[in-house]
Write a structure and sequence with these properties.
There is one protein chain. By secondary structure, the chain is α+β, with helices and mostly antiparallel strands. Helix content is about 45%, strand content about 5%. The protein has a 4-stranded mixed β-sheet, with helices on one face. Strand 3 and strand 4 form a beta hairpin. It is globular.
Length: about 220
């Protein structure tokens, strides 16, 4: 099987597939990019016209969606221990968490990040930042209830659904929003970030990173550009 390649920026959503690759022990090539790459490495647009990370290739396959790449890795490399099979009682829940991770949880965080520190100071929107910070915390309601009596999200074991949701909690921590997490979510997140594969993946690119988020309430965030 040909070797996959991942384009990654430290602390970006590309951490999801990078973590999955490390969990599965798959041999891969990695291209590290400064964040945001569309600003600091303009020739990356020739590879991925969106200018976003992750970008993932495997032979002729090209993918840009972090949770989708995780699912692809499970199914293509047949790592059943990190997935939930069709027909399983929790298969629908597994898929829902995979998509919930970005569509519901990471989305408001990207608004917070952009309008608290990625935009120039004259374009920052404090009200939007506060509103979407609150939105993210309120959108944790489903996780708050679901994880209260569970160690992991599905089938009583760790799967890529935990990676997908785990990144949203990681980004929330990076933004200082973890101070609003419920105790059971903090405990769950502690279990995830204690995993050796997460520690390996999260460290990649950390020392070279040009950007690390300023935490809530985002006071005195410098201009990036």
């Amino acid at each position: 099987m040909s070797k996959p390649k991942l384009w990654h920026s430290y602390s970006a959503r590309s951490l999801r597939p990078l973590w999955a690759l490390e969990e599965m022990g798959i041999d891969y090539d990695l291209e590290l990019l400064p964040f945001p790459p569309r600003i600091f490495k303009r020739d990356y647009l020739d590879i991925n016209a969106l200018g976003t990370v992750p970008f993932f290739t495997h032979g002729e396959v090209e993918m840009t969606e972090s949770s989708g790449i995780c699912l692809y890795l499970v199914e293509t490399w047949k790592h059943a221990e990190l997935g939930v099979p069709v027909g399983h009682a929790e298969y629908g829940d597994y898929l829902n968490w995979l998509f919930h991770s970005d569509a519901t949880l990471t989305f408001p965080q990207t608004i917070v990040l952009r309008y608290s520190q990625l935009e120039s100071k004259d374009r920052r929107l404090p009200q939007a930042v506060e509103d979407y910070s609150t939105w993210f915390i309120k959108r944790l309601k489903r996780l708050n209830a679901h994880i209260a009596e569970r160690e992991f999200l599905c089938d009583k074991r760790f799967t890529v659904a935990d990676i997908a949701i785990g990144y949203a909690l990681y980004l929330g921590e990076s933004l200082g929003l973890d101070q609003f997490y419920e105790p059971q979510v903090n405990d769950y997140w502690a279990r995830l970030k204690a995993r050796p594969a997460f520690k390996r993946a999260e460290a990649i690119g950390r020392d070279e990173a040009l950007f690390k988020p300023v935490k809530y309430p985002f006071e005195d965030a410098p201009e990036l550009f």
